[in-house]
Amino acid sequence: xxxxxxxxxxxxxxxxxxxxxxxxxxxxxxxxxxxxxxxxxxxxxxxxxxxxxxxxxxxxxxxxxxxxxxxxxxxxxxxxxxxxxxxxxxxxxxxxxxxxxxxxxxxxxxxxxxxxxxxxxxxxxxxxxxxxxxxxxxxxxxxxxxxxxxxxxxxxxxxxxxxxxxxxxxxxxxxxxxxxxxxxxxxxxxxxxxxxxxxxxxxxxxxxxxxxxxxxxxxxxxxxxxxxxxxxxxxxxxxxxxxxxxxxxxxx
Length: 252
Description:
- The chain is α+β, with helices and mostly antiparallel strands.
- It has helices at 5-16, 19-22, 50-66, 77-84, 97-103, 131-134, 168-185, 188-196, 208-214, 220-227; strands at residues 34-41, 90-95, 108-113, 116-121, 124-125, 157-160, 202-204, 229-233, 245-250.
- The chain has a single domain (4-17, 34-138, 152-250), classed as Bit1 (3-Layer(aba) Sandwich).
- It contains 10 helices and 9 strands.
């Protein structure tokens, strides 16, 4: 049993919703809205590469969800379950210096990829966001596009929509959604093997033709069965239109 099981149960339903319904929050109590903070280390003197930072954020988000502390008897289970049972919101913020060190004391997991670091925290109610997190900026910094080269074999692939522009913060949240949805559909042996790699994955932007051939919106179950592909469909609260498919995740 995994705390991510509810994602697998509603995955196809979410992909099939009319776009305008993805942004409908009329069933939510604003005081109970929950989110996972994802903190991106962005030092002024030595900024990370964009791709490495996205890969670190993607790995950190799923690492929190599949940690032993997320199991039913673990300290993190209840806050994670409450979050996953609703919308899997993430809020990416940037930090450096002492502010980055401060968030290391909060419950969560830090992942480093090629010098880039991201820390995903145990989710909670937005109104209860710790001051160490709320003081961090959500926007204001961007990283230039890079050329990461061919994706390494044997790792899950996260494919960014080549027709959609996202900031590094938005992209970090989306790739974190992607690894969580992917993990929810893997069996226990596959999850364990992925954990052995530190939940490493590759983030790339494919050609438009490749994206369209793999995009599973019309047949989510068939796409998973044939190609091992799942999609992240965004509600559209920030940066992109409601119902936009932002990321595809493909199993290793």
